[in-house]
Write a structure and sequence with these properties.
The complex is a heterodimer of chains A (261) and B (71).
Chain A lengths: L31 H15 L13 E11 L10 E3 H13 L5 E12 H13 L4 E9 L3 H7 L2 E4 L4 E4 L4 H4 L7 H18 L4 H8 L11 E4 H6 L5 E2 L2 H22 L1
Chain B lengths: L2 E3 L3 H4 L12 E4 L5 E6 L4 E8 L16 E3 L1
Antiparallel strand pairs in B: 2-3, 3-4, 4-5
Classes of the chains: A alpha/beta (261), B mainly beta (71).
Chain lengths: 261, 71
């Protein structure tokens, strides 16, 4: 926030960052500045101007999903978003990098694009490394399938999850869709959640269409322990428990792998 | 596109009226992390967001939101 008035030493990059100059009217398609910036930083790391320990990768990576989950449509700038195109390559990198042993997914999301949300959830299910999710604050709407996609899920004592129907009036933006299409989309969410959580389809639908809980909508707000009681989430807990669980899952996998030789 | 969110659509789709949201630029760091910053047009920028799955990246003071960078 200190703008440029007072440069605190060490608080700014010593490397000459050279992304495309904002004054440039037409940036060249290759964006050469990006390459230069990358090289500058790489040399910074390789020539020891930075802490050597920083070169190692943390064995547990953390994927943070906040605000609206953004997919096909770029949302207006006032929305804080987690973008699909940022998440997917990160998940690929987590799967591919042998130094990364496990993934912690932290959710504080109000929901968002159905297709993007389900895609992220499917990517998490497809990871071969241990995954644990932790819902903090809120894991609403399309955040629900993402939370249950992990091998094991936690919810903070005070966190909430809202389960409500997909609706034409209010939640649909864009071209008119048929009611059946919407039903189909909703069934995709229900199917995913009931396949990956301990909650049954009947119970989940009941929570989704319950009346009298939400002021503006059908549905249910589940607070921490309630989400566990209905089988949606595995356990109430915080960061420490989530990390301990990941550690246990890593050990479990390594033992199995060692036993197989 | 179907949005499944608890935020009402009129709030999600509300266009910014004061138009004060500064343009953000993005740079890809060697480890695969992304740094979002607001250039000030005078060769400097302010870091606004770091996108990375490696928690150690967030301990690097150069990438902290609010830190200045040379553009």
């Amino acid at each position: 926030m200190a703008e440029e008035k007072k440069e605190q030493p060490g608080m700014h990059a010593e490397a000459p960052f050279t992304p495309p100059s904002p004054e440039e009217e037409e940036p060249s398609p290759e964006r050469p500045g990006f390459r230069r910036a990358r090289l500058a930083l790489r040399s910074l790391r390789e020539f020891g101007q930075m802490n050597v320990a920083a070169m190692a990768v943390s064995p547990i990576h953390c994927l943070t999903i906040v605000g609206q989950i953004e997919g096909h449509l770029v949302l207006p700038p006032k929305n804080k978003t987690t973008k699909y195109e940022h998440i997917i390559p990160q998940l690929v990198a987590v799967e591919q990098n042998p130094q990364i042993k496990a993934l912690l997914i932290i959710l504080n999301t109000v929901g968002g694009d159905v297709e993007a949300g389900l895609a992220i959830a499917e990517m998490i299910v497809g990871l071969t490394k241990p995954t644990v999710s932790l819902v903090l604050g809120g894991g609403h709407s399309i955040g629900v399938p993402i939370a249950v996609a992990a091998d094991y899920s936690f919810i903070a004592e005070t966190a909430t999850m809202t389960i409500h129907p997909l609706r034409l009036a209010g939640t649909l933006i864009g071209v008119p869709q048929t009611y059946e299409y919407l039903e189909k989309m909703q069934d995709r969410v229900i199917k995913f959640v009931t396949q990956h959580a301990k909650i049954g389809e009947e119970k989940f639908r009941e929570l989704m269409f319950r009346t009298g809980d939400l002021v503006r909508d059908l549905g249910t707000v589940l607070v921490g322990p309630e989400a566990v009681a209905c089988g949606l989430i595995d356990e109430v807990g915080g960061l420490g428990r989530a990390l301990r669980k990941l550690g246990a899952l890593i050990t479990e996998r390594e033992t199995v792998a060692a036993a197989r030789g | 596109m179907i949005l499944y969110t608890i935020v009402p659509p009129e709030v999600v789709m509300a266009e910014d009226e004061d138009g004060e949201i500064a343009l953000e630029e993005e740079v890809l760091l060697p480890g695969g992390a992304r740094l979002l910053f607001r250039p000030d047009g005078k060769g400097r920028g302010i870091v606004s967001r770091l996108i990375s799955t490696d928690p150690r990246d967030f301990l690097d003071p150069r990438f902290t939101p609010g830190a200045g960078i040379r553009v």
